[in-house]
Amino acid sequence: MQCFIGVLLLSGYTVVPRRRMYWSLDQDVRNEAVAKAMSRNRFDEILRYFHPADNENLPEGDRFGKVRTMLTMLNERWMLYRPQNKELSIDESMIPYFGRHGAKQHIHGKPIRFGFKMWALTTSTAYLIQAVPYQGASTGKTIPELGMGGSVVMDLISELPRSTKYNLYFDSLFTSLSLMDRLTKEGFGATGTLRSSRTEKAPIIDQKVMSKKVRGSFDYMQDKLSGCLMVRWHDNSVVTVLSNCHSIKPIGNAKRWSNKEKKSILVDQPNVIFQYNRYMGGVDRLDQNIATYRISIRSKKWWWPVVSFLLSASVNNAWMLYRLSPSYASQKLDLLEFTRRIANCYLQRDRSHHTLPSLATGQILPEVRFDGVQHIIESIPKQRRCGECGKKVKRQCMKCHVALHVDCFARYHSK
Q1: Are strands 218-222 and 189-193 parallel, antiparallel or unpaired?
Q2: Where is each PiggyBac transposable element-derived protein domain found (predicted)?
Q3: Between 2 and which of 244, 346, 362, 399 could a Cys-Cys bridge form, CB atoms 3.0 to 4.6 Å apart?
Q4: How many Cα atoms occupy the beta-carbon half-sphere of 288 within 13 Å?
Q5: β-strand 252-258 against 238-243: which pairing, if any?
Q6: What CA–CA distance (Å, rounded) separates 279 from 402?
Q7: Burial of 301 (0-12, 13-18, 19+ CB in 10 A)
Q8: What's the Cα-to-Cα distance from 300 to each of 47, 139, 257, 303, 304, rounded to whole Å?
Q9: How would you write the pLDDT of the chain (415 residues) with one tens digit per residue?
Q10: Helix (H, G, I), strand (E, B), or coil: what is residue 265?
């Protein structure tokens, strides 16, 4: 299965028009790493019988029952190993899908117009903490008084520990005064853009009047009981923001292009707007990372795009954790090199089952060389240079395919 997943990850950065071209004998499309790690028929067989859930015990009424077990497990892992960031963003993420399914959505104007909608809770650096699939308007309102948007927010943050105060950032789809009061009572900071129809007749300057004022003008009001701040600011258009954790001061500056003066100008910007722009883009960064190296191997099964999304999101989360580890200081791998490292590691770990040519010592990944699994010494017909001492020898490691003396075998596989 690790080898199977390695092929899937490799298909994200080495794309061919047809899946079977990886095993083709034509040199312009053949991929040696894939062809030598697993046979084509074996891969097709695993892909055919791969199921993320038991079809005999699917939950009733759940449109995503086929992937619910896998999604629940990953949500637990993502929550357990999450970075200790206090600034979190909530937004929707689209998974491309063009087949027929009751939960398929069409959102006009989005980069991905057709597909499954996934509610996502991420850090500001794009680490995915929780993901919940959208199944339709009839299933989203778990808390009727908060509506669908508020119910989604409360569902995503339900597993967060209350010992730490988190600051949440979301857009106008979720924001309401009732949600802000609920989050304030539960100890969460929150900031979100607010639709003009949800201000509940707050005594703030009208949106049409604000649009005629100079760019950078703003008006605000604050509720003394709850402490919620409502700010209406004139940027390229009029935007309204609601927050219970940020104030308008200090007033900063934002660089904008002026068509009238034909140059960049500085306009006043309240602090709450600056903080929202600073931390809101976590889900968009996640979408960008996944789309860059999206798994290209497809299947006719409707749930396959969801499984591919979850695998890519897990790689993204692992890369985020790697960037916070001490290893990143000595070896800085970007997302492409990190994904390649995982794919090559999974493909090399299954080498003991195939007759493969020998590799140089530097081509064996440390994750394979020092894993301590299935490293067995075997005899070979021709002499080769020992990977440890450099002298000639007629033995090799069955898994690494590196020539080694018996005395050098332990030293070579020890850090």
Answers
A1: unpaired
A2: 1-319
A3: 346
A4: 8
A5: unpaired
A6: 49
A7: middle
A8: 11, 26, 48, 9, 8
A9: 999 999 999 999 999 999 999 999 999 999 999 999 999 999 999 999 999 999 898 988 889 999 999 999 999 999 999 999 999 999 999 999 999 999 999 988 888 999 999 999 999 999 999 999 999 877 778 888 888 999 999 999 999 998 889 999 999 999 999 999 999 999 999 999 999 999 888 889 999 999 999 999 999 999 888 889 999 999 889 999 999 999 999 999 999 988 888 899 899 999 999 999 999 999 999 999 999 999 999 999 999 999 999 999 999 999 999 999 999 999 999 999 999 999 999 998 765 445 444 555 557 788 888 888 889 999 999 999 999 899 999 999 988 889 999 999 998 998 8
A10: strand
State the pTM of this model: 0.86
What DSSP letter does each residue of 116-132 carry, written as one string?
A: EEEEEEEETT--EEEEE
Cα(6)–Cα(341) distance, integer angstroms: 10
DSSP letter for 394, please.
E
Q: Do 243 and 272 meet the contact criterion of CB atoms below 8 Å apart?
A: yes
Cis peptide before 59 (omega within 30 of 0): no
Is the CB of residue 134 less than 8 Å from the CB of residue 118? yes
Q: Give whole-number Cα distances, 222 to 74, 166, 232, 241, in Å.
A: 40, 21, 12, 12
List, in order, residues 6 or more apart from 35 with CB less than 8 Å away: 22, 23
Kindly state the DSSP code that residue 251 receives in the 8-state scheme: P
